[in-house]
Design brief:
Elements: H1 3-33, H2 36-46, H3 51-64, H4 92-103
Length: 113
């Protein structure tokens, strides 16, 4: 086997692997930056939410079966403890505080009601 044949065979193996790695990198990049989980994660970072708050929000997403988790940041009704049951109801105070933080809502007592 001549040296040029070895180089041709090596190139024939390297090029498809390189193309595959490029395509996988594009898919991972797209998922990290252009997906519902990525948007949710970015909004959590933007609002400075700790791990506990993020996990609580994820539980609310699962409870309501929201296909787009970022809706929690635009629609405060999803965080209303009155709409939740089970283990999430026990965390009503946390949810109320989180809802007030995200939507700059006044607590009911402070509103004069």
């Amino acid at each position: 086997m001549s040296m040029s044949t070895v180089w041709i065979l090596a190139a024939a193996g390297i090029v498809p692997v390189g193309v595959l790695l490029y395509l996988l990198n594009r898919l991972v990049h797209r998922w990290r930056h252009n997906s519902h989980p990525a948007l949710f994660s970015g909004l959590c970072r933007l609002h400075g939410l700790d791990l506990g708050a993020r996990q609580l929000l994820k539980q609310v997403v699962q409870y309501h079966r929201l296909a787009q988790p970022a809706r929690l940041f635009t629609e405060p009704q999803w965080l209303d403890p009155a709409r939740l049951r089970g283990p999430l109801q026990a965390r009503a105070a946390e949810l109320t505080a989180l809802r007030e933080r995200l939507f700059d809502l006044d607590p009911p007592d402070a509103a004069g009601g």
